[in-house]
């Protein structure tokens, strides 16, 4: 969790149930029983996730949602509507007004918690795009890069997500110094593209935070790059079988492991000390080597 959850709900029993559910999952939460209080809590706390009821005593939740999205910081948070309105037209109206998700009452607690987890991932993804707009290197031309160095980084699964953004920023700055082209992965990881595997390996070594438990996969292959740019935002994509292979491998690694695929390893003029990691070939069909972090 990156910040507190703001519960905008006027029914005390329902607000208390939501609060206890979030507390049980160790998520900080604050209740606002009306829109006046919600506006105050929004400015005081800057929550990253808002759970919003639509029928409130001092106004309509959709009106406030449109007001929120019109503000400069309005898209820095994720809004999950939880409402008794079940008509498809009402649901569509809420989503078009700026809601990121919609849950109808009554809801299953496990479904709501899963949707809150998705909302948190979306917060991290949006934060990643804001970092891209501030820290990205010059964008490459659209097109295909036949022998790109690919680096995938994933945070430790058990790590506290409130520490995600500082570590994410550390990696982003370090990789950018080696002219890496960065994209966030929705689970909080990073995908980086380099002119060569050797450059990607140098970037990984130089950017690695002390005692890092982040997982890393180095690969080589053909990558297609496409971008859309707007004021303050750079959104893009890297596509190709090699990218998919690297991301798949990154999900298999234990915390702290660095892995280099066999094609990337053989492409290096001076490979680092490494040992074969059998699960890579067994599970994906792609042989890979575990890099020894201690090499100079």
From TrEMBL:
<dbReference type="GO" id="GO:0006355">
    <property type="term" value="P:regulation of DNA-templated transcription"/>
</dbReference>
<dbReference type="GO" id="GO:0005829">
    <property type="term" value="C:cytosol"/>
</dbReference>
<keyword id="KW-0902">Two-component regulatory system</keyword>
<keyword id="KW-0804">Transcription</keyword>
<dbReference type="InterPro" id="IPR039420">
    <property type="entry name" value="WalR-like"/>
</dbReference>
<dbReference type="GO" id="GO:0032993">
    <property type="term" value="C:protein-DNA complex"/>
</dbReference>
<dbReference type="InterPro" id="IPR001789">
    <property type="entry name" value="Sig_transdc_resp-reg_receiver"/>
</dbReference>
<dbReference type="GO" id="GO:0000156">
    <property type="term" value="F:phosphorelay response regulator activity"/>
</dbReference>
<keyword id="KW-0238">DNA-binding</keyword>
<feature type="domain" description="Response regulatory">
    <location>
        <begin position="4"/>
        <end position="120"/>
    </location>
</feature>
<keyword id="KW-0805">Transcription regulation</keyword>
<keyword id="KW-0597">Phosphoprotein</keyword>
<protein>
    <submittedName>
        <fullName>KDP operon transcriptional regulatory protein KdpE</fullName>
    </submittedName>
</protein>
<feature type="modified residue" description="4-aspartylphosphate">
    <location>
        <position position="53"/>
    </location>
</feature>
<dbReference type="Pfam" id="PF00072">
    <property type="entry name" value="Response_reg"/>
</dbReference>
<dbReference type="GO" id="GO:0000976">
    <property type="term" value="F:transcription cis-regulatory region binding"/>
</dbReference>
<dbReference type="InterPro" id="IPR011006">
    <property type="entry name" value="CheY-like_superfamily"/>
</dbReference>
């Amino acid at each position: 969790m990156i910040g507190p959850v703001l519960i905008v709900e006027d029914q005390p029993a329902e607000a208390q149930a939501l609060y206890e559910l979030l507390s049980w999952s160790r998520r900080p939460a604050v209740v606002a029983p009306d829109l006046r209080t919600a506006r105050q809590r929004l400015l005081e706390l800057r929550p990253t996730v808002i759970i919003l009821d639509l029928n409130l005593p001092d106004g309509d939740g959709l009106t406030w949602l449109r007001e929120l999205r019109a503000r400069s910081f309005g898209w820095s948070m994720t809004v999950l509507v939880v409402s008794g309105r079940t008509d498809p037209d009402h649901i569509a109206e809420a989503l078009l007004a700026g809601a990121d998700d919609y849950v109808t009452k009554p809801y299953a607690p496990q479904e709501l918690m899963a949707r809150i987890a998705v909302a948190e991932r979306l917060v991290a993804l949006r934060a990643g795009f804001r970092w891209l707009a501030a820290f990205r290197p010059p964008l490459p031309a659209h097109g295909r890069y036949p022998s790109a160095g690919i680096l995938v980084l994933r945070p430790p699964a058990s790590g506290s997500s409130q520490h995600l953004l500082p570590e994410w920023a550390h990696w982003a700055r370090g990789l950018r110094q080696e002219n890496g082209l960065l994209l966030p992965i929705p689970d909080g990881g990073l995908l980086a593209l380099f002119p060569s595997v050797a450059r990607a390996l140098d970037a990984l070594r130089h950017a690695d935070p002390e005692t890092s438990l982040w997982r890393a996969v180095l690969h080589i292959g053909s990558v297609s790059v496409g971008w859309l740019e707007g004021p303050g935002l750079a959104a893009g994509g890297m596509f190709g079988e090699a990218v998919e292979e690297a991301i798949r491998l990154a999900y298999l690694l234990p915390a702290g492991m660095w892995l280099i695929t066999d094609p990337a390893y053989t492409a290096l003029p001076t490979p680092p000390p490494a040992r074969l990691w059998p699960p890579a070939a067994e599970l994906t069909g792609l042989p890979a080597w575990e890099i020894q972090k201690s090499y100079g």
